[in-house]
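Here is the promised in-class demo. Please do not try to memorize the tokens; focus on the logic of going from shape to residues.
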């Protein structure tokens, strides 16, 4: 088999990979992929906010623990003083009763001392009760704060786990894209000089094929050389179920109007659907995985107004995007 025939088959393989899923699905996947990074930034920000709040609560918790310890020590000291005062009161009362009948001259003084001591004792008892109430209040506040801290720690761990899971999936997606790019580059290396290139950008793999490898000027029938290239591309892709494919037809800016084509839109769309048909029918790519679309002259690869630029702009782009289902599942938890 000569080189031209090989190129034709490879080209046909590439064109076959490009078609048949509604444009709306592609737009949804684009939007989901665009918001993914924003969601991750939001999760990182929430993670920092929760961490800051957690540290603040932890500081308050430590302060309450310190207050609790001080109140406990104060309570014990007051209780000890109360016990000593009560003991002194009992001793004085005992002395008073003994002297009540024998020492009438000192009776009034003992009564006064007894009343003063009793008043102090009542005051100390009230103070002790208040401190005990404060201690119970602080203990309840500490328990409540401990419960809040535990909930925040749990929420923090859950958010951290979610962020790590997302980061792992994004890394896995990027690795899959890089691996696919390398695989396609090696598989289609023989078509590089025929106007086929493989690049990666924004988490996607782009297979760009010049018009000369796929179509004759103003035609939508896939050239044999291009068909061979497309089928080779399909052979590489058909076992990768985690990717979606968009087939984009592009033209130059020279207007076209024939019995078959109203304008460049028509030409670009029909070329995209021709490649999609080849990739699904002959290349055995799942039709649900392919979206054909026509871009006309509106997305030129080269904006220069030269013959070379117009040649470069007449192309088919096969855009292969990783599936976002796993990532969306995590975001929707």
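The designed amino acids, position by position:
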């Amino acid at each position: 088999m000569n080189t031209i025939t090989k190129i034709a088959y490879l080209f046909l393989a590439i064109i076959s990979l490009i078609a048949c899923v509604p444009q709306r699905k592609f737009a949804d996947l684009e939007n989901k992929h665009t918001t993914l990074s924003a969601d991750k930034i939001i999760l990182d920000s929430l993670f920092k906010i929760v961490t800051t709040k957690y540290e603040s609560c932890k500081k308050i918790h430590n302060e309450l623990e310190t207050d609790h310890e001080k109140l406990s020590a104060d309570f014990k000291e007051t209780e000890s003083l109360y016990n000593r005062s009560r003991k002194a009161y009992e001793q004085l009362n005992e002395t008073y009763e003994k002297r009540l009948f024998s020492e009438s001259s000192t009776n009034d003084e003992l009564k006064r001392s007894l009343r003063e001591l009793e008043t102090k004792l009542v005051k100390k008892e009230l103070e002790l009760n208040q401190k005990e109430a404060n201690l119970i209040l602080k203990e309840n506040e500490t328990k409540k704060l401990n419960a809040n801290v535990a909930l925040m720690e749990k929420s923090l761990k859950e958010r951290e786990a979610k962020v790590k899971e997302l980061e792992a999936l994004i890394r896995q997606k990027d690795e899959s894209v890089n691996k696919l790019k390398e695989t396609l580059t090696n598989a289609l290396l023989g078509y590089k000089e025929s106007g086929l290139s493989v690049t990666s950008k924004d988490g996607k793999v782009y297979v760009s094929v010049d018009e000369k490898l796929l179509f004759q000027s103003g035609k939508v029938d896939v050239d044999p050389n291009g068909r061979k290239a497309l089928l080779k591309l399909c052979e590489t892709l058909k076992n990768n179920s985690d990717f979606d494919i968009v087939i984009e037809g592009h033209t130059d800016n020279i207007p076209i109007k024939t019995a078959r084509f109203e304008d460049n839109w028509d030409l670009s769309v029909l070329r995209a659907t021709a490649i999609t048909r080849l990739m699904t029918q002959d290349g055995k790519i799942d039709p649900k995985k392919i979206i054909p679309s026509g871009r006309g002259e509106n997305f030129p690869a080269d904006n220069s107004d030269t013959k070379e630029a117009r040649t470069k702009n007449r192309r088919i782009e096969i855009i292969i995007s990783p599936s976002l289902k796993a990532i969306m599942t995590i975001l929707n938890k």
